[in-house]
Amino acid sequence: MLGGGKVTAQARAAHWPALIPAAELLDDPVAAVDPWLSWALSEAGRRAAASTPATGRGADPGFAGLLDALVGESVR
Predict the structure, then answer these.
(1) How far is CA 46 from CA 42, 59, 68, in A?
(2) Which of 2, 19, 23, 68: disulfide with 11, CB 3.0–4.6 Å?
(3) 3-state SS, residue 14
């Protein structure tokens, strides 16, 4: 989504390690995705994924409340 301020803010709140702005994807999708794909498949990326709770809540305790609001029910 062009603009993407809301998505960017959600990604930061969720402590997502990778966020690719839509404009970069439109300009050159391979160049935008390739470094993150390489990182995700690397040992460092695998360690990061393994250290993240499966629920996606990350370390931010307020994130569960955000998920509750977005989903409309408790996800805990």
Answers:
(1) 6, 17, 28
(2) 19
(3) coil
Which residue, 63, 43, 46, 45, is CA-closest to 55? 63
Write down the pTM of the prediction. Answer: 0.54
Phi, psi (deg, nearest 5) at residue 28: -160, 90
Rounded to an integer, what is the distance from CA 50 to the centroid of its chain?
15
Q: Which residue has the tokens 């470094």?
A: 35
Tell which phi-psi region holds residue 3, choosing left (phi > 0), alpha (psi between -120 and 50) or beta.
Answer: left
Place of tokens 């994130």: 63
In the structure encoding, which two tokens stand for residue 1, read together? 């989504």
pLDDT in tens, the chain (76 residues): 566 678 778 877 777 778 888 888 888 999 999 999 999 899 998 888 777 765 544 555 566 666 666 766 554 5
DSSP-assigned letter for residue 7? H
